[in-house]
Amino acid sequence: MTMEKTCSFVVDTSGVRLDKFVSEKCPGLSRTQAQRLIEEGNVTVNDRTAKSGLKLSAGDRVTVTIPPTPPSSLAPEAMPLKIVYEDVDLLVIDKPAGLTVHPAPGHPGGTLINAILAYYPRLAEISDSLRPGIVHRLDKDTSGLMIVAKNKAAEMNLV
Predict the structure, then answer these.
(1) What's the rounded Cα separation, in Å, for the pair 131 and 149?
(2) Distance between CA atoms of 25 and 145, rounded to whole angstroms?
(3) How buried is 9 (Cβ within 10 angstroms: 0-12 exposed, 13-18 middle, 19+ buried)?
(4) What are the backbone dihedrals phi and psi of residue 20, each rounded to the nearest 5 degrees, phi first?
(5) Which end of the chain has fewer CB atoms < 10 Å from its terminal CB, N or C?
């Protein structure tokens, strides 16, 4: 489990939305993630909670608290993967029909994510979700190429 992280910023330009400001000031944080932090009360403006769409004023103090990431319940499972392409940022996998992509009710294991974690264990470090690195979807019964981000920067650029 990671430690809680708090940072504060002083706004230098008026008119920018709070969610945009937070995502720009916190590397690796998407605007959607910034909005979630704001909605959960983890972002304050001048020591008060605010809405994502708040237009900031020069001199406002924005404090962002990023809560610790809970430990992942995903377990690596060695399964064959048909890797079509790989570099430092991406994996492209040919997913067969019938393979569930990520754990869900009724499919706690034996998924593509479980297989990817066995192949590339560091993937669990980039996200606190049950879909680490997954940037799009393919239904269980659909075959096709799945792009998997191998790091946070790649994930942020692909989502």
Answers:
(1) 11
(2) 34
(3) middle
(4) -65, -45
(5) N
| Active-site residue (options: 19, 60, 139, 141) | 139
Domain, as residue range, for 143:
83-158
Q: What are the per-10-residue average pLDDT scores of the chain (159 residues)? A: 78 94 85 89 95 96 82 81 96 94 79 92 76 86 93 84
Residue 158's nearest CA partner among 120, 119, 130, 132 is 132
87 has catalytic annotation? no
Domain match, 100 and 39 both: no
Q: Locate the DSSP E strands across the chain.
A: 5-10, 43-45, 48-49, 61-66, 83-86, 90-95, 144-149
With contact defined as beta carbons under 8 Å apart, do 116 and 123 qualify? yes
Total-model pTM: 0.56
Residue 105 tokens read as: 């009710």
Q: How many domains does the chain have?
A: 2
User: Is residue 102, in this structure, part of any structural domain at all?
Assistant: yes
- C-alpha–C-alpha distance, residues 34 and 50, integer Å: 12
